[in-house]
Amino acid sequence: MGSCVSFFIFLIISIRHGHVSAMEMGLSSDLTPSPASAMYVLGDSSIDCGDNTPFYSLFHRNLSLFPCNGSDATLLPQLLAKKMRLPDTIPFYSQNGSIHGILGGVNFGSAEGTILYPGSRSYQSLNQQLRQAFDIIQLLQLQLGQETVDNFIKSSIFYLSFGKEDFIEYFLNNSSGTGFKDGSQNFTHILVNQMTNAVRNLYATNVRKIVCAGVLPLGFAPHVLLKCDSSSNSSRKACSNKINSLVLEYNRRLEENVVVISEELPEAHVIFCDVYQAMMEFMGNPKAYGIKDVKNACCGLGKYGGSSGCVSTEMACQDASTHVWWDLYNPTPAVNSLLADSAWSGKPLSSICRPMNVQELFSSSV
Fold first, then answer.
1. How many CA atoms lie within 13 A of 335 on its CB side?
2. 323 - beta bridge partners?
3. Do residues 329 and 218 lie in contact, with contact meaning Cβ atoms separated by under 8 Å?
4. Domains of the chain
5. Binning pLDDT at 50, 70 and 90, where does residue 69 land?
6. How far apart are the first and last CA of the chain?
7. pTM here?
8. DSSP string of 161-173, one letter each residue
9. C-alpha angle 313/314/317, rounded to 5°?
10. pLDDT digits (tens, 9 = 90+) for 210-230
11. Contact present, 270 and 210 (Cβ < 8 Å)
């Protein structure tokens, strides 16, 4: 908490003494940037490789020092930002107080970020990331004026990708370290309600363009397959299906709420991106996408590469593009690229983002 406060004090001083005006930033009080000004990203390891998590290298619980291959630039929202020709989002904790950097987009995500606060752990929860985003917006308003910043925020895209770490915590990380907790639809309801509240709170701060990404099919992730093999309660297939059914329930309810919000709130452009169904297609028809291995992690140890995560990139397979899974729970850059292409334009997979694709969201006016 102290580091966060220190950051904001430094940022306020830097902005106030920098004498940066809206005109100098290329903004004016009556300007509505088009079609999008920047991308702001909130989420978990699906949008952050660990660089934006304080002390991640010491306390990472998923045993993967490298939850993605290369850098954040290989992840889905960053690939989409490239298609929009937007600047790379800068990790929140690497900010140096530059208003130029903030206006270019910020990644508030944390590799182990959760929707629900995980008790004794101090990873960046959804609410913590929202507070950071709201503080950044307020700081911009102090410097550039509310009307200018309102226009800027309305045209910017906010990308939310949460839930994966909550399911991992719920099913796998119980106190004994073995077995599974009983699934409960109440759990998915709580997660979806929190995400819905987050979208409404963003809308209240003049955010209008929002992408909500679903959770991928965790029941087929390498570490989950390994745990299911060792579970005495059911077969591996039944175990995987149990987890995937809860993930599907979460995705379904989140999409339903996205539709309701879009209808209720004037000017709201909220879309749901179904990464679950897309990855199921890749795993069901791997040859069509140049994929050879749908079970084993490219970077991991043990059966399925699921007993230990990617602690060194030197242990990775020779060609990650032939794998669906990079490590314990995360897809390879090749799969992320396929997801980005489909989310952007509907090719190779159509309608994974609904009710419009990201390109249409990017071009929409508010």
1. 33
2. 293
3. yes
4. 33-224+232-274 (3.40.50)
5. confident
6. 35
7. 0.89
8. E-SHHHHHHHHT-
9. 85
10. 999 999 999 999 999 999 987
11. yes
Q: Which amino acid is at 303?
A: K
Extract the tokens encoding 163.
Answer: 């839930």
Q: How far apart are CA 46 and CA 351, in angstroms?
A: 20
Q: Which of 133, 134, 39 is nearest to 343 (CA)?
A: 39
DSSP state at residue 107 = E
Tokens of 235: 């077969």
- The answer to whether residues 67 and 49 touch, using CB atoms and an 8 Å cutoff, is yes
Q: Which residues of 25-40 are buried (b: 16+ CB within 10 A; e: fewer)?
A: bebeeeeeeeebbbbb
Cβ(349)–Cβ(285) below 8 Å: no
- The distance from CA 226 to its chain's CA centroid, rounded to whole angstroms, is 25
- How far CA 253 is from CA of 88, 185, 239, 242, in Å, comes to 31, 11, 22, 17
Task: Please check whether residue 272 is in contact with residue 354, taking contact to mean a CB–CB distance below 8 angstroms.
Answer: yes
> 220 to each of 223, 239, 283, how far by Cα in Å?
8, 10, 10
The DSSP call for residue 28 is -
Residue 188 amino acid letter: T
